Amino acid sequence: MKNYASVIGITCALLIPTVAIGEEPAVVSELKITTLSTMLTEFRGMGEWGFAALIEADGHAVLFDTGARPDTVLKNAEELGIDLSTIDTVVLSHNHWDHTGGLVTLRRTLKAKNPSAMQHAHAGDGIFLPRILDAEAVDSLPPMPREFVVNVVDVRDRYEALGGHMIVHEKPHQLHPGMWVTGPIPRVHRERNWTPFMRIKQNGSLVEDTIPEDQALVLNTSDGLVVVAGCGHAGIVNTMEYARSITDGKSIHAVIGGFHLMSATDEHLKWTGARMREFGVEHVVGAHCTGINAVTHLREAGNYSRKTAVVGTVGSTFTLGKGIKRGLLNR
Domain 31-192+200-321, what fold? Predict the structure, then answer.
């Protein structure tokens, strides 16, 4: 297999002041989250190994991750009747191909309709660290199409050539009132939610890539926090802990996205589900790399119902005050 390497290049094209964590956070009163890329789909859209979600909060819209294939999110949005050209902000949870693959195509296609479409992309510090593929580790994994192994530095360069701005965050940053990107999430608990097939160059040595830039989106709603994760590589419990720490310990109302629990042990899933319930989580949408079996275990461990803990599908939604709109696969 080809050895893909990337060259270091951390870009902070815009310097935007961050609201201090100690300030009283704004509260989101209206929120809708629509999944635009994940493995499963039903009547509309196409599935893929990837993740993307549209976040609509009090009149502000943000695209969280961009899927794997260049045009999946674009086509799924069109089929769902969603106009992405009005959105100027993208959040990238981490560097992996299944979350950054659609960024350039989205910017190139939508800017013709609106010059500011997808113009600002927010990432966590460490996303552009030099990475090298560990061929030996990859040999132990299922075959991966070469065209899906994305060099995120190349993605950044092509995105910026189209007039896009990449903003890198070292700490939490408020995008809109009540809507935060976490920046890199501290690893308090020993959750190992990543696949060890990449290495990072540090101090002249190659070390395991733990995806240090992994970040989430946190919305401070009237019902509690809503946390959106791309893969949860930092650990979904670590992610929830950090979300609470930046919002003065508020309970968590919903957790949505990929949690990378597909290979987790039953013991780890039981612990995770119990912690979700302990944090006050009432709704769980486990999409992408969470795993169907893992969602079942989380449901049992947290004592959730089939209405409140579901497998995410393309077009599935979570709406504040209404909960999860389920498809036939979750009946």
Answer: Metallo-beta-lactamase; Chain A (3.60.15)
